[in-house]
Design a protein that fits this description.
single chain; 463 residues; alpha/beta; FAD/NAD(P)-binding domain; Enolase-like, domain 1; 3 domains; 5-stranded parallel sheet; 11 helices; globular; binds flavin-adenine dinucleotide
């Protein structure tokens, strides 16, 4: 039996793709939930845009039809000599091949008060349920950690009229990933959000714990909570930052990054570092044991990429790749060019190729910022050959397929700019502003390019 620990995007993709090629029994184990759900949609459940069941892409009969057995239990340990797993409740399971797809867990850094009530991260279904309870009737919250999950949490809280104090350790937002100008552009956008108080260059020192009965503070009396999480009145009542600033609050969100969820694997013979160590075939140090998704750490990372990739599509792609290997066709993980997307409130962000927070040696950049609208395009290219290296784009959506082609064919920045309309989803925007973009580039770099008609990549566009 093939056993997969973890029913997130990577484990479920592996299972579905193994089933297409093999009849071997497959079991997926997860302690979190019986059915696969979209973690990236958790925020929309809290904000009332969808119900939790709408985050589950497959109907219950899908698993039966595909003969994928689902088991909700916690795996406590792995014996790779006997090829067995010990689960909570004492059950032992035997595997022929084992896939570790155990995801991440929110970071905690030993802050005083970090385990108190109304202090939590945002990762799991249980976190969502706790957040419902913990924020019921409260007035203000502190969110610690300036990344994507933090900003999602802030947005969630603001939709319930809860004041948010957001602590960002660095001087600018998401500075480990975004170049300074991009970061400042987003920071400006945050200023438009009523109730959001950004605190840059501030670190959490301590969480204060005391009494606060949030049900009483809610107009109309006690809340009726559709959840089994037990309400506690003792919990967070404020924080102090390292600079000595005190902020009153009734909820603290810990969103200072995530790390691989691998504690139970550390006592096994499988090699680990920050994550479970794998080669480019997603094979661990032990035969017949593989790791994919957020929990995997490459001993030799894909050139230009990080050893641990904690995004949705890479987990999916690792699952697809591993299914080949497990069914007898050993395939290397070749994810192609980096891309990612996110939303900062109402500004969409995408990145294609390799845009670092600091310009690398031999690189040049061209930044276009729209004078009135919330649009910024940040291009990076080779200073000598002008080969296009990557883009961060904010406020406009650009086509992945087209950028992939440009990167593969090593197009120059001039070729990209001349034909940028091919990559654009919003022709009206380009009809009005593409000449501004091209003119600005010409005056900055002494070139004489013009916007061209669509060329070879036009045919790539299907929608
Ligand atoms: C709030 C939020 C928003 C996000 N938004 C985005 C986004 O917009 N775009 C993007 O690309 N990425 C986003 N991500 C990241 C993305 O969701 C993850 O990269 C992805 O879900 C990881 O998938 P996975 O299959 O590796 O692991 P997971 O989805 O974490 O699944 C692992 C599962 O294994 C279970 N498990 C672990 N150990 C055991 C054990 N011992 N026994 C039993 N079960 C176990 C866990 O409980 C969990 O259910 C977001 C993440 C969060 C938390």
């Amino acid at each position: 039996m093939i056993i997969i620990i973890g029913n997130g995007i990577s484990g479920v993709t592996a299972a579905r793709n193994i089933r297409k090629k093999s009849d071997e029994p497959i079991t997926i184990i997860s302690a979190e939930s019986k059915y696969f759900f979209s973690r990236t949609a958790l925020m929309y459940v809290y904000m009332g845009h969808m119900k939790f069941e709408h985050t589950e892409p497959y109907e219950p009969h899908f698993w039966e039809k595909n003969r994928i057995n689902l088991k909700q239990t916690y795996v406590e340990s792995i014996d790779t000599d006997k090829k067995t797993l010990s689960c909570s409740g004492g059950e032992e399971l035997q595997y022929s091949k084992l896939v570790l797809a155990t995801g991440s867990k929110p970071n905690k850094f030993g802050w005083k008060g970090q385990d108190a009530n109304r202090v939590q991260g945002l990762y799991s279904k249980q976190d969502l349920e706790s957040m419902e309870v913990n924020t019921e009737g409260i007035k203000s919250a502190v969110v610690v950690g300036g990344g994507l999950i933090g900003i999602e949490m802030a947005e969630m809280l603001l939709t319930r009229q809860i004041e948010v104090h957001f602590l960002v350790r660095e001087k600018t937002f998401w500075s480990g990933v975004l170049p300074e100008q991009d970061s400042k552009f987003i920071m400006k956008h945050f200023e438009n959000h009523h109730g959001l108080h950004m605190h840059y260059g501030e670190e959490l020192d301590e969480i204060h714990v005391g009494e606060y009965d949030n049900r009483k503070s809610k107009k109309g009396g006690s809340a009726s909570l559709d959840t089994d999480v037990v309400y506690e009145s003792t919990g967070a009542v404020g924080i102090t930052t390292k600079s000595g600033q005190k902020i009153d609050c009734q909820f603290v969100g810990l969103t200072a990054g995530v790390s691989p969820n691998i504690d139970f694997i550390k006592n096994s013979k499988i090699d680990t570092n920050r994550g479970i160590l794998v080669n480019r075939y997603l094979e661990t140090s032990v035969e017949d044991v593989y790791a994919i998704g957020d929990c995997a750490e490459f001993t030799e990372p894909v050139p230009g990429r990080r050893p641990i990739e904690q995004v949705w599509y890479t987990g999916k792609f690792m699952g697809e790749t591993l299914a080949h290997t497990i069914t007898g066709n050993r395939v290397k993980y070749e994810p192609g060019y980096w891309f990612n997307s996110a939303k900062f409130f109402d500004i969409e962000y995408q990145t294609y190729g390799d845009v670092r927070s600091k310009l690398q040696e031999g690189e040049a950049e061209f930044i276009y910022q729209h004078p009135k609208e919330d649009v910024l395009l940040h291009f990076v290219f080779d200073a000598t050959s002008h080969r296009f290296i990557g883009i961060n784009n904010f406020g406009v959506r650009l086509r992945h397929l087209v950028f992939n082609e440009w990167l593969t064919k090593e197009a120059t920045i001039e070729e990209v700019l001349q034909d940028l309309k091919s990559a654009n989803f919003d022709p009206e925007f380009y009809a009005t502003y593409e000449s501004d973009i091209v003119n600005q580039f010409n005056s900055q770099f002494g070139t004489n390019i013009t916007s061209a008609k669509r060329k070879w990549w036009q045919n790539l566009i299907t929608s």
